C-alpha cells in the first residue's frame, strides 16, 4: 500500500507543523504530499490553502517554485460555473516525492544514507 | 470491483460522467461513497482525503475504463435501484459541492461521530463553502442516510479500521 490512508492526512499535516520550516521547506513538502494523494485528480488552490492553513502569498510562492521545478503543473478549469486553478503533481514530482519519503524514512529508522 | 455496476447506477440517476471534467470526477467519488454507505458496495475502499471520501482505486478504474459510462448499462438488482433512486431524490441536481459536503458529513457519521461533531468537522474542513450550503447539504445527507442500517454502518467502521491499520503498518515499514 503506497497511499497513506486519508484518515491520517490531518494528523500528518499537524505533525509536520511541529517541524522547523527553516531547516527545509515544509510548505513544499506538504504541497507534494497533498497532491500525491490525489494524483491525476488534483486540488484547487483553496483546497490546498485550507488543508495547509497557509496564507495566499506563502502558498502561491511555493506553488510557483514547484511549478518551475516541473514537479507540479496547473491549469484553469471550470467548476460549478467558476474558473479555478487546479494543481496536479507531475510524474517527475511523484518520483521526487517518493525519493523524499524514502530519505526521511531512512533517517527516522536510523539507517545510513 | 464492478465499475460497470457503478456506471449502471449513474445511468439510472441520469448522470453521464465526462471524466475530463473535474466536477464529474468529484461527483463519481462522492456518489460511489454515498451509495456504498447504503449497501450498494462495489468493493472500492475509501479514505478521507482533502476533498472528502476518496478511493484511489476507483479513480484509477474510472480513468482506465471511462468507456463504460457510454456503454449499455448492466442490470441492477432491486436494492441497487432503490439506493440509486433515493440518492437522486435526495440530491436532485447532483451538485458536486453538495455531494462533497454530504459525503464528508456521512463519513464522519459512519466513523461514529454524532451530528454536532460531524457538522462542526465539516464546517472546519470546508470553510470555503457558505454555512448555508453546508447546512443544506448536510440535511440532504441526513435525508439520504436515514435508511442506512446499523449493520451497514458497523461494517464500514470495521473496513475503515483495517484500512487505518494497513496505512499505519505502511508508515512503520
Topology record:
The complex is a heterodimer of chains A (113) and B (173).
Chain A: H1 9-16, H2 26-38, E1 43-44, H3 45-52, H4 56-69, E2 72-79, E3 82-89, H5 91-108
Antiparallel strand pairs in A: 1-3, 2-3
Chain B: H1 3-12, H2 22-37, E1 47-49, E2 52-54, H3 56-64, H4 78-91, H5 96-110, H6 115-125, H7 131-145, H8 150-172
Antiparallel strand pairs in B: 1-2
Helix pairs in contact in B: 2-5, 4-7, 5-6, 5-7
Structure in words:
The complex is a heterodimer of chains A (113) and B (173). With 113 residues, chain A is of the alpha+beta class. Chain A contains five helices and three strands. Chain A has a three-stranded antiparallel β-sheet with strand order 1-3-2. Chain B is mainly alpha-helical and 173 residues long. A two-stranded antiparallel sheet of chain B has the order 1-2. Classes of the chains: A alpha+beta (113), B mainly alpha (173). Chain A binds chain B through residues 1-9, 34, 37-43, 46-48, 50-51, 77-80, 86, and chain B through 21-23, 25-26, 46-51, 53-54, 56, 59, 63, 95-97, 125-128, 160, 163-164, 166-168, 170-171.
